[in-house]
Write a structure and sequence with these properties.
The chain has 181 residues and is mainly α. The longest helix is centred in the C-terminal third of the chain and has 26 residues. The protein is globular.
């Protein structure tokens, strides 16, 4: 509620909520530590400087400038969809959080170069990175259900491709409905 009214930043609200949950006994510290995924934390920690380097060296602007040539004369819904597609294409090879760290600066820079507010472009990156339906390795939930469900690698693409197309068709217009450029 406080974030919704703009009273405190999101990061402070999430930290405060975590402290309250632990203080009230809703989650034990031992369980919280056990839930941490060490390799994932290392991956994200290692990619934060890469993300900063992409921004600081002008790499994000350079890539966004190239993309501006592709998306410069198209409607915003196509540009948002293209960025969502890019995030969806990278996620099977990186973790979804790592994808956001790499693609978000490019998306923000692209939006600014096209003369748009970056909110919709950043949301497209977030949705695209979260929607890896094509492989069992792009998201930990896909991996968890593979064994118990008896799925094979190819099963993900068979059901995931139509679902990905659905997200790409419905996502950009809905994002622009809530975050106009």
């Amino acid at each position: 509620v406080m974030v919704g009214f703009g009273l405190i930043p999101v990061s402070i609200a999430f930290f405060g909520a975590a402290v309250i949950i632990v203080a009230l006994g809703g989650l034990k510290m031992r369980d919280a530590y056990a839930a941490l995924d060490g390799p994932l934390l290392i991956l994200i920690a290692a990619l934060i400087p890469v993300s900063d380097a992409i921004q600081q060296t002008g790499g994000a602007d350079l890539i966004a400038n190239l993309l501006r040539g592709v998306f410069g004369e198209v409607p915003p819904v196509i540009a948002v969809g293209g960025l969502m597609f890019a995030a969806m294409a990278v996620t099977p090879f990186l973790n979804n959080a790592a994808t956001v760290l790499i693609v978000a600066p490019i998306g923000a820079s692209l939006a600014i170069q096209l003369g748009y507010r970056p909110d919709a472009f950043l949301m497209a990156v977030a949705v695209g990175a979260a929607c890896d339906f094509l492989t069992p390795i792009g998201h930990q939930c896909n991996t968890l259900v593979m064994g118990p469900g008896g799925y094979r690698f190819g099963d993900y693409a068979r059901l995931g491709a139509p679902l990905s197309v659905l997200v790409l068709l419905c996502g950009p217009p809905l994002i622009l409905l809530f975050w106009p450029v």
